[in-house]
Each structure stands twice: as structure tokens, then as C-alpha cells.
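Batch manifest, entry 17 of 40.
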Amino acid sequence: LGAVWCEINRSMAILRNRFYTGQSRRSGILVTRLIRAAELLLLVIAMTVLIWFLPQAYKECGSLDDVLANRNRFRQFGCPDGEYNHLATLLLNPPGSTTLNLLFYEGAGTFSAGSCLLAAAVYLVMLQLLFGTSISMGIFIPLLYVGACLGRAAAIWWDFNVITYSIVGSLAMLAGVARVLISLSVIMMETTGLYYFVTRAARAV
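Output type: C-alpha cells
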């Protein structure tokens, strides 16, 4: 999956470069910069609308009594009192430490496989469209997030340990794109504190 992402991103970068090079020759640098800004603005608006309305269209609710983390991290978003929206919790929280910790350490019933797959798909599309535009951005945390979502979904389907598959999935996804092998295993071991995962991590990357 990481190799496919890289290949699509390379193709999009080539198309963008050809378009903006030709546009610069025809209309000048100022017009080209305005078009770049308009592209970025339209993509941000589209992704914001998608992240906001998708949890309303695909609404799965879970009980707050079953969660382990702080309840403030779980988004009600249209669910009854005392419950939370699976997809809204995944998409409306920062993808860094907050959501990754939920994916790594919460129980199997906290998020459904469908919600995890949708969240991963949204972030993959978002990364693919935004990476290469006129904005500085990183892919480290988003790719860890996507891998954790996919790993958890696979674990739920096959009734495996969701913690193991979330962590290993995040490692595999980032390693497939960034090609940082040994260092990534060490970083994840230090981050999670699960040093006994080193063998699984090494095999994943």
C-alpha cells in the first residue's frame, strides 16, 4: 500500500509540475501563484466538509461506559447522551498523540472496523491530494494514523489482538512510504514503551 501511495504521489507531482510550468509561461508567475493558492483553498474546504459530514452520514455509536481513556476525547456528534460517535472521534480529534493512543490502547469494541477503514481512507485521500501543494506539511503522523486504523480494522475482522495490529499496522504503513526501517522500529518502541514489540516491529518494517 505504501508503494502504491508513493507511485500515485509521484504521478500527481509530475502532472502538477507540467501544469504549473505551462501556466507560468502563458500567464506569468503571479497568476500561477494565485491558482496554486486557489487549489489549496478548495482542497482544504473539500476536506473540511468531508470530515464534518461523513460522521453524520455513517453514524455508529458506542457507550462511554466501555472506554478506558478520558471521556472528553470521545465525540458525541449526534449520538444519544452517554454514547459517542466512532467515526467522529477518529476524524475530529488530532491524529497525533490523542487519536493514536486511542487506536493503540482502547479495547476491540471501541471502534468498528468500518469506522477505522473510512477514517484511513479519508486520511489517505487527504494526504494524496495535499502532499505536493503549496503548503509545508508532514506525513509521519498521518501515515502512522492510517496504518493504525487499517491494522485495527484487520484485527477486528479476524478477531486478533487490536493493540498489536494497530501498532504493527502503523509501523508497516509508514515504513512502506518513508523507507525508514531500523530507526522507525526504535522510535516506535521508545514512543509506546512496549519494548517486547521489537521483533514484531522489525518484521513489519
